[in-house]
Amino acid sequence: MSVAVRVIPCLDVKDGRVVKGVNFTGLRDAGDPVELAARYDAQGADEITFLDVSASAEGRATMLQVVADTAEQVFVPLTVGGGVRSVDDVDRLLRAGADKVGINTAAIARPELLTEVASRFGNQVVVLSVDARRCPPGVSTPSGYEVTTHGGTRSTGIDAVQWAARAAELGAGEILLNSMDADGVTGGFDLEMLDDVRRAVRIPLIASGGAGRPEDFAAAADHGADAVLAASVFHYGTMTIGQAKEALRAAGHPVR
């Protein structure tokens, strides 16, 4: 039996408010994180992802109180990321109500963190967040994609496909693949990037960045995504979670 494709709304939070921009810039307010999370839970979201988009860049911890308040309103798995640097950070987030923890910048700085977290809490807790883009001029990687950090503001020169594969070996239980080029543009997921990462990893793969129409979710699943994540289209009422699931179902993908 095929596993149901998960539909995941993403709450990008800055200063206690949900924000959304294009290619990580031009952020505008999209509402209260607790209220939005409760709305998406009621609409049938399979999971909710909460990202403190300024935590790494500003050198501060994820806002635990917002996480706790959100967790009280949500009855589906909650993934939380942003500013996670240690096993203790993960422990605090799990105690606050998170079910999984997203790690990006800290894992690049010290990859063994993935192993440490997986060893203590289990692989199912570890979500490696990969903010990937097609290599800009002056940067070259074998796959043509590089990893960025700090909310997409810093180039690393690290090959995104190779990094995803290595992270799976180190203990990541899931890969959240966010296309920097497609983020907020609503022109569809980067299917070529999805294909390349799907071939490199066997663990669950979450497609992120670019959803604009219900059909985009089905296309991502066609290209190997186990889950599809979006923000703008849900926050601003372009579509509902139900419409995304209906498109997946119409394309032959099982949904919950």
From TrEMBL:
Keywords: Amino-acid biosynthesis, Cytoplasm, Histidine biosynthesis, Lyase. It is found in: Cytoplasm. It catalyses: 5-[(5-phospho-1-deoxy-D-ribulos-1-ylimino)methylamino]-1-(5-phospho-beta-D-ribosyl)imidazole-4-carboxamide + L-glutamine = D-erythro-1-(imidazol-4-yl)glycerol 3-phosphate + 5-amino-1-(5-phospho-beta-D-ribosyl)imidazole-4-carboxamide + L-glutamate + H(+). One of its GO terms (cellular component) is cytoplasm. Its EC number is 4.3.2.10. Belongs to the HisA/HisF family. SUPFAM superfamilies: Ribulose-phoshate binding barrel. The active site is at D12, D131. It comes from Actinomyces glycerinitolerans. Its main location: cytoplasm. GO terms for molecular function: imidazoleglycerol-phosphate synthase activity; lyase activity. CDD domains: HisF (cd04731). The lineage of its organism: Bacteria, Bacillati, Actinomycetota, Actinomycetes, Actinomycetales. This is Imidazole glycerol phosphate synthase subunit HisF. GO terms for biological process: L-histidine biosynthetic process. InterPro entries: Aldolase_TIM, His_biosynth, HisF, IGPS_HisA/HisF, RibuloseP-bd_barrel. IGPS catalyzes the conversion of PRFAR and glutamine to IGP, AICAR and glutamate. The HisF subunit catalyzes the cyclization activity that produces IGP and AICAR from PRFAR using the ammonia provided by the HisH subunit. Pathway: Amino-acid biosynthesis; L-histidine biosynthesis; L-histidine from 5-phospho-alpha-D-ribose 1-diphosphate: step 5/9. Signal peptide: none annotated. Heterodimer of HisH and HisF.
